[in-house]
Amino acid sequence: MIEELSEENVRKILSVVKHPAIDRSLLDLGILKKITVEESRVIITLALPFSGIPKQIEDYLAHSVREPIKNLGYEVEVKTTVMNQEELQKFLAMEKEAWGI
């Protein structure tokens, strides 16, 4: 376990995690919504663009943010929520840009 894991460190570590279908990081897309660091535990909240995301995709996203932190020796809990309208519009704009639409 590395010493003094902070929210900033977790964001930096996870900043390279890309969306599986969009060439952007989960952080840039607004999917990586909230990070809480406790003593030996990190709670990550993912904001999904809408409810009803296929379980496979939700599990993939959770795994992609859980593993890099878990590999440092921390317990990781991943929660999910749904983006608000403003977050969704930003996500959709970035998605279109990434796909060249």
Automatic annotation (TrEMBL):
It comes from the Archaea. Residues 7-78 form the MIP18 family-like domain. It comes from Candidatus Argoarchaeum ethanivorans. SUPFAM superfamilies: Fe-S cluster assembly (FSCA) domain-like. This is MIP18 family-like domain-containing protein. InterPro entries: FSCA_dom_sf, MIP18-like.
